[in-house]
Amino acid sequence: MAAAAAPAIPVLVAGGVAALVLKFFSRRPPAAPEIQEEASDDGKDASSAPEVPPITLSWHKICCALQAKDGITTVKRLLKNLSGEAKAGRLLAIMGPSGSGKTTILNVLAGQLAASPRLKLTGLLFVNGTPCVSTSYKVAYVRQEDLFFSQLTVRETLSLAAELQLPGSSTAAERSRYVDDILQRLGLVRCADTPVGDAKVRGISGGEKKRLSIACELIASPSVIFADEPTTGLDAFQAEQVMETLKKLAQDGHTVVCSIHQPRGSIYSKFDDLLLLSEGSVIYAGPAQNEALAYFAGLGHSCPEHVNPAEFFADLISIDYSSPEKESASRKRVEAFVEIFATTLYATRSLSGTEPAPVKLSTQHVTQQKVGWWKQFRLLFRRAWLQAIRDGPTNKVRSRMSVAAAMIFGSIYWRMGRSQTSIQDRMGLLQVAAVNTAMAALTKTVNVFPKERAIVDRERAKGSYGLAPYLAAKLIAEMPIGAAFPLLFGAILYPMARLHPSAKRFGSFSSIVTVESFAASAMGLCVGAMVPSTEAAMALGPSLMTVFIVFGGYYVNSENAPVMFRWIPRVSLIRWAFQALCINEFKGLKFECDKPYDLPNGEQALERLGFGDSTINKAMVEEGRILLFWYTMTYALMRKNKPRYQRIVAPDESS
Ligand SMILES: Nc1ncnc2c1ncn2[C@@H]1O[C@H](COP(=O)(O)OP(=O)(O)OP(=O)(O)O)[C@@H](O)[C@H]1O
């Protein structure tokens, strides 16, 4: 009985955490934005755009090649001798056909080209004329996909970024004013208290999401802002607004560089400078407006009146694959453009004139972590908690599934008696309960975690916080809600099936399924940390769990399994949960006996299953070890898989 009571501890712990969390947040309603209404200490006006050091970024002879496995042969040249510059206070647009290298050059300039042993990246980068070093300027990179925690409002998202990224010396009022200022500047005031939303719950619009992405990047007052196709997926109006935002940021003194596909005329007119690429080569780099048109007119290609220059350039520099003749003609034209540009004044006038001395460069940009471990933990805990409790659709589905599963199994195993046949029924039900609990927790986690990991990877790459406070905050914040569903399942199933009728046994039953559910979630986290996408996680997670189900203690007796598989039951979270549930159910239970070979009590039933000399405590310790193993593996994998960026080397260093 004492053993049976021991596993009640996790439920008490989860309940305790839930109570503490509720108490903590009862003082701050979840929907309320976390704005401190303190008066400014220093009376500074935060409404003006913060001053950023002006940066002129120039690049010289950037080459990027994909190499064969031998490391010598070049398979493809992604960037060919690219030179150019982006100036403070100006908006530079990188345009070119699909696959021309726009994203690649943007990644290179932002120091965020994903590292690969098969890529060779050479060239020189200069900031205000001096060789670029990693921490000499602040970079913001607005990626194509906008990834956010869907249940947080716009203001909460920005406030959290501000709390994590602004120096600890700033006051809460200053941070709050700073957030208000950014909301104002990016036109996000109207949707400030709207949740970001996702596919399940509609939140802010695509354009607002993009502007929120820019806003989050602006928190650190970057000098240079890179944006990869910021208008993709937006309607004309939203696209216009996003580009207007970038233009204003340029006018505020930022250096803004964006790649863009086929902008409409009104968007093109906002560009100050233009970098035209085709198949990794520069076709034109220089001022975007009349100069660009005059340059091509000088080459015999005049843009007709009332034609959008962006469309004109797109037609001019694209390779036409519709027929071999057209392909050859368009390729010749593009090659001629590349050749001409490489030898014109345009190609060199923006650079400092003298050939820069080769220096060893690193463009890896890592922000220093600004706040301490506990503050990171507290902020991330709040985010994880809000995300978990506000996710109504997911929680509704999970609770409905728990109730439905309990009702179905409860009806099938309705009020089991004490006949001999009920022994098999009990075993079947306990196995089904263990499998259902594990699968529900696993599928939920693998469905959600890979998306969250993508956000966390980005934030960690920026140095916003560490992995340990993130994981600790997530695990603790999700504990109460994670415990609620197995508890609901147990509370309905237990009386329906009339399992061992004792409050203590019910407490143990609930504790066992709760711990098992945490172990399955931990396994889901590990699977999510291992693979690149939700689809891959959804394929791998349940397949792995099937193996643990087969060796879950009911279908195969571990002693009868081939030697090579005998270790699997020891690591199967289903097996230990099933074992603990059986001991909890059968110990002390008497059965009706008619025949001499009938089993008179539960102890003998346990002997048959091979659980005779075990206890609930022992099984739960094993389950706890499995839980810790998956948590540790998740930590190790996320640590190992932290995004790494390709180092750029000076041309002569690479030879
Ligand atoms: N890490 C990589 N390994 C292999 N090939 C790559 C890698 N990165 C880019 N490429 C290739 O380099 C070329 C340029 O890619 P990039 O994404 O820069 O083009 P893009 O102009 O941005 O295209 P789009 O407009 O379609 O996004 C493509 O052919 C792409 O397949």
TrEMBL record:
Keywords: ATP-binding, Membrane, Nucleotide-binding, Transmembrane, Transmembrane helix, Transport. Its main location: membrane. Pfam families: ABC2_membrane, ABC2_membrane_7, ABC_tran. Signal peptide: none annotated. The keyword Nucleotide-binding applies. CDD domains: ABCG_EPDR. It comes from Selaginella moellendorffii. SUPFAM superfamilies: P-loop containing nucleoside triphosphate hydrolases. The lineage of its organism: Eukaryota, Viridiplantae, Streptophyta, Embryophyta, Tracheophyta. GO terms for molecular function: ABC-type transporter activity; ATP binding; ATP hydrolysis activity; ATPase-coupled transmembrane transporter activity. InterPro entries: AAA+_ATPase (IPR003593), ABC2_TM (IPR013525), ABC_transporter-like_ATP-bd (IPR003439), ABC_transporter-like_CS (IPR017871), ABCG_dom (IPR043926), ABCG_transporters (IPR050352), P-loop_NTPase (IPR027417). One of its GO terms (biological process) is transmembrane transport. Residues 57-304 form the ABC transporter domain. It is a multi-pass membrane protein. This is ABC transporter domain-containing protein. Gene3D superfamilies: P-loop containing nucleotide triphosphate hydrolases.
